[in-house]
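INFO batch 0412 | record 1 of 1 | parsing
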Amino acid sequence: MLAAIQSPNSTSLPEAVFLVFLAFAHLSVLRYVVQRLWQRQPVIEYEPRRQFPRMLAVDVTMTLLLVLLLLGIGGAIAASIRPEILSPDPKSATGPTSLDVSTMIQGVALTFLIIGAVGAALATSAKLTADDFGFNLGQIRRDLRLGLVAYFGIMLPVLIIQVTTERVVEYKHPLIESYEKNPTLGMMALLALVAAIAAPLSEELLFRVLLQGWFESLESARKAKKSLAVSVDEQPPSNPDSAGRLVDLSPPNWLGWWPMLASSTIFALMHWGQGAAPIPLFFFALVLGYVYQRTHRIWPSLVVHMLLNGVTVATLWLGHSGS
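INFO prediction complete | emitting tokens
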């Protein structure tokens, strides 16, 4: 939900120290990436996985309708409690009110409700398992390290792109504006809950696991149809698992990258209206999509997303505490 580190007019000492550390960490990651590419090796090794279930269009449609239904119910409940949500009085919006807090709390509750409802619906209709959702703990330590390295690899370029684009279009976000109106410790804790936990979890599940996963299932279907026209010896390596679902043993070719590009584009467009945020967020989402494509586990991209938003919240808090 938050785009990147804010770019204040004056940089405090902690922010300067972090930026220097970030630069050195990025150079270390960049050196590793260049070395892998020079050796014609993938930056992240592709891990064989069983193919994502080929969800029917009805599964995706019902999932979107369920999300819209829950959003409508949540909005109706919020409006019944606080009518000014639908028809706010501009004259009364001169200072901080409890509306910001109540709306954020309702948003967090609704987010986790949607996650649970959508997960249960897809587990029933599309037979998705915990592994299909990316919640595999078998390599959790490696996934956490990979997420940390990916964060240091992408954060500095995203920050540079954001600062550059902000010179043309100002970055805006309702959560940041809410905190600036009411910069209290309680509001900061609530902001951290929304931005560093609820938003990354819901967005990674939606855009990486479900959306990119569904696109990849369509790509797998395309590859399967194409493989019928070639000999058995030329077919891409695959092997059924104990459940009978094929296991992809080889990474996708260049045509197989469109699921990552499509989900990243949609992710960026979902942040339309936040100034120039869609531009840096598109490149940020590309890295998240690449990490997910190589591992098909949610933990690495979730760590990157949480760190991005968490550092944003910490920077915002340091900026206000310093002033």
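INFO post-check: The two ends are 25 Å apart (CA to CA).
INFO record closed
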